[in-house]
């Protein structure tokens, strides 16, 4: 593979053509494609991988997807405290006075939605 003379491009070892690295674009391959982040020159960008628990597919510069209410995690891939049943997170609906694990008005329930009694 001959050295690529285009700024930001890399050489494809199979074809010998100058290409932008993974998930990048622009004249100098200096921008991440939609739904990707973390540009490393000469290497490319990482895919966001946001799940249906996200409000959109574009993450921020740290890879954090914007989560819907009741979801959490970098990819919004688990239920937040007070919710159960991923991938369709539903509120626990526990009574704060009678539930064992409550803090700041949020009670934790088991994976089936049952609230542990005091």
TrEMBL record:
Q: Where is the Laminin EGF-like domain?
A: 1-47, 48-91
GO terms classed as biological process: animal organ morphogenesis; system development; tissue development
**Disulphide bridges in this chain?**
1-18, 20-29, 67-76
* Pfam families in UniProt: EGF_laminin
Origin: domain of life: Eukaryota
Q: Which UniProt keywords apply?
A: Disulfide bond, Laminin EGF-like domain
Is the Disulfide bond keyword given for this protein?
Answer: yes
Know the name of this protein?
Laminin EGF-like domain-containing protein
């Amino acid at each position: 593979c001959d050295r690529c003379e285009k700024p930001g491009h890399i050489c494809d070892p199979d074809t010998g053509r100058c290409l932008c690295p993974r998930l990048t674009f622009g004249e100098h391959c200096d921008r991440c494609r939609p739904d990707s982040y973390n540009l490393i020159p000469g290497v490319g960008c990482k895919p966001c991988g946001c799940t249906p628990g996200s409000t959109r597919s574009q993450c921020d510069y740290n890879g954090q997807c914007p989560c819907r209410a009741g979801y959490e995690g970098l990819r919004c891939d688990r239920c937040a405290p007070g919710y159960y049943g991923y991938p369709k997170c539903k509120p626990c609906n526990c009574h704060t006075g009678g539930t064992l694990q409550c803090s700041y008005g949020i009670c934790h329930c088991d994976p089936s939605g049952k609230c542990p009694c005091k």
